């Protein structure tokens, strides 16, 4: 595989603290940047792509927190520590969570260095707090169900640590998508350009054959810079409209 060198984006500040295919009946933003860097275009052009005649396209890549799943960091976690959100930000270690997301440290090391003053806290209690706070964003599970019914290939593309398993245990996201691209298993975080390129190499498709959805504008911009079509998530209705305009079948008749 011939590759062209490319610049790597700097990670953004984390917004959060932190496969099976069976279907089940569900219980109940849009700024697209089309900039394509020349060097990245050349890199993708030189990728060896397989015959995708029988593969349904586009492939959908989803951010998880505050795109598919409510993030408990902003309300639940400060309450757990008996702090305001600002107080929590002021006293936590500035990079511990980022290192945890990239898999550079485990949860025991996270607990040891999480607070700048080294104070102890109930790690298992925090994990329970997080688990209790996870829920689908309104309307998202119905959309995922429809996309799955219509045979679209879907993958998580997320900055999250090994605690993504807490989300899976509660919400069973693998009913709809695969936890393929997690920062903790790849050692990279969005908007690092190489993380996006690694996903393309893994999927073996042209970048234009992928659509990436994320609530963070910078992450969407990073995707469009390598040729992936991007959608900034704002709410499920706008997401439905944007996906439909991009040729994704979200026929209401398939909803159940």
From TrEMBL:
What Gene3D superfamilies does this protein map onto? Answer: HAD superfamily/HAD-like (3.40.50.1000)
Q: Show the stretches that span the lipid bilayer.
A: none
Pfam families given for it? Hydrolase (PF00702)
* UniProt cross-references to PANTHER family, sorted A to Z: ALPHA-D-GLUCOSE 1-PHOSPHATE PHOSPHATASE, FLAVIN MONONUCLEOTIDE HYDROLASE 1, CHLOROPLATIC
Q: What is this protein called?
A: FCP1 homology domain-containing protein
Which species is this record about?
Lotus japonicus (Lotus corniculatus var. japonicus)
């Amino acid at each position: 595989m011939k590759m062209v060198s490319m610049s790597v984006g700097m990670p953004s500040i984390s917004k959060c603290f932190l496969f099976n295919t069976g279907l089940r009946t569900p219980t109940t933003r849009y700024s697209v940047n089309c900039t394509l860097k020349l060097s990245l275009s050349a890199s993708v052009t030189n990728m060896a792509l397989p015959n995708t005649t029988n593969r349904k396209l586009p492939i959908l890549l989803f951010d998880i927190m505050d795109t598919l799943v409510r993030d408990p960091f902003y309300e639940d976690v400060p309450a757990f520590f008996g702090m305001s959100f600002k107080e929590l930000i002021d006293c936590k270690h500035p990079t511990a969570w980022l290192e945890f997301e990239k898999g550079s440290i485990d949860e025991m090391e996270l607990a040891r260095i999480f607070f700048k003053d080294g104070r102890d806290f109930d790690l298992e209690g925090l994990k329970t707090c997080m688990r209790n706070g996870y829920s689908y964003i309104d309307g998202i599970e119905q959309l995922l169900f429809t996309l799955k019914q219509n045979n679209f290939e879907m993958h998580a593309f997320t900055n999250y640590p090994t605690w993504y398993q807490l989300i899976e245990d509660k919400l069973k996201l693998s009913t709809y998508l695969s936890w393929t691209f997690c920062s903790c298993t790849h050692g990279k975080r969005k908007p690092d350009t190489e993380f996006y390129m690694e996903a393309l190499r893994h999927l073996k498709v042209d970048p234009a054959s992928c659509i990436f959805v994320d609530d963070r504008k910078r992450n969407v911009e990073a995707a469009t810079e390598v040729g992936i079509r991007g959608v900034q998530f704002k709410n499920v209705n706008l997401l439905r409209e944007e996906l439909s305009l991009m040729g994704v079948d979200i026929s209401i008749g398939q909803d159940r």
